[in-house]
Amino acid sequence: MGSGQVTDWQGKNVTVAGLGVSGIPAAKALHGLGANVTVVNDGDDARAREQAAELRALGVTVRLGDGATLPEGTELVVTAPGWKPDKPLFTAAREAGVPVWGDVELAWRLRGPDAAPWLCVTGTNGKTTTTQMLASILKAAGLRTAAVGNIGVSLLDAVLGEERHDVLAVELSSYQLHWAPSLRAHSAAVLNLAPDHLDWHGSMEAYAKDKGRIYEGNRVACVYNVADKATEDLVREADVEEGCRAIGFTLGAPAPSQLGVVDGVLVDRAFVENRQKNAQELAEVSDVNPPAPHNIANALAAAALARAFGVPPKAVRDGLRAFTPDAHRIALVADLDGVAYVDDSKATNTHAAQASLAAYESIVWIAGGLAKGATFDELVARSAKRLRGVVLIGADRALIREALARHAPEVPVVDLDRTDTGAMLAAVQEARRLAVEGDTVLLAPACASMDMFVNYNQRGDAFASAVGELGT
What we know:
Elements: E1 13-17, H1 23-32, E2 36-41, H2 46-58, E3 61-64, E4 76-79, H3 88-95, E5 100-102, H4 103-110, E6 118-122, H5 127-140, E7 147-149, H6 155-160, E8 168-171, H7 174-178, E9 187-190, H8 198-201, H9 204-212, E10 221-225, H10 229-237, E11 245-249, E12 258-262, E13 265-268, E14 280-284, H11 293-308, H12 313-322, E15 331-336, E16 339-343, H13 350-357, E17 363-367, H14 377-383, E18 387-392, H15 397-407, E19 413-415, H16 423-434, E20 440-443, H17 456-470
Parallel strand pairs: 1-2, 1-4, 2-3, 4-5, 6-8, 6-9, 7-8, 9-10, 10-11, 11-12, 16-20, 17-18, 17-20, 18-19
Antiparallel strand pairs: 12-13, 13-14, 15-16
């Protein structure tokens, strides 16, 4: 189980930690390669029993309700990315000298000798959009590709499936990177770094270190955010291959070895002849959908990775034009009486909410949910001048209310003191009352949704439905 490719899985005793979107494909793949697979899972509910029955029918051993004990004779643990590093199972593995891999590490090790290179994207916010933009640009260049990893097709399916790829656009979370020690990308980007998932990583330093793993061993380009020094620091600390370059992206005019914006045009001063004097036009800002500042940054990062792979400028433009963002990402739901209603339910942390709030001049902000250990002072202080009013819902809304009292005491706040799903309709009605013509009612909760909703999609749908009721 060293660092090279493992070619003979026959009879290897592998424990897979967790059923679910990564555990089940991992168990099936390893079983198919001849390993003796045991799946351990904390839960023992109806869904888990159904999944266990499917795996047992194949000949996989499944232990439900006991995710803490390391099965006898285990030679490798493959974990779902969400399992915390301090779980007893991993402590037992460390003590027994048993390696622990995530699904990304497993996919990396199972690649064939002529496998497609990986262009990798991480960051606190914008990962999915940037990865999808990148895939759209690569497709526009005529390359066979897929957006995989934390989104879309599972990496294991992409690596082991029948379909051939020229290059993969890979979104990676900090969890996945934590468990992927030998990953070596062609090129990679860290979009930004802000406190998130600290309950999982234990500290900002540990979180940043896991994000920084994406640069280890890069061959061509380490793409960083000029406006976020922490991302450049990670590039400096990374051990990369000889000749690998640091490439910055900026919303301002780019210096040599950067991509940036000049007079409404996205330009490249990194992948051009004589970059001291020359710049290559890639696309218009208006080709980016939506052209909000943080989304232009996403487009520049995607363009940098594509250019590192040798994609021509025209493909960058065509790929950005063809790209449409996912639902619940700064989506205009309706325009009623001169007030825009915008769903950015995907803004599940303060950094994402900050980017969203920065896109509008005068806002009635709907916020609140599960804070995940976040604080809101900086977000409120930076956004105070844009706020017409605030409507708060959800379990940790008091944290936002207190930050508003400290940094925006003159802004009217409606605290709904509710965590039922019907609260969204009341929130939208209150927001309408506070808004005047020209305002934007913005759902950018800065919090996770699970206190009230199944996920941020359901929260965004509830918002859209409530806005729909206003229009009737």
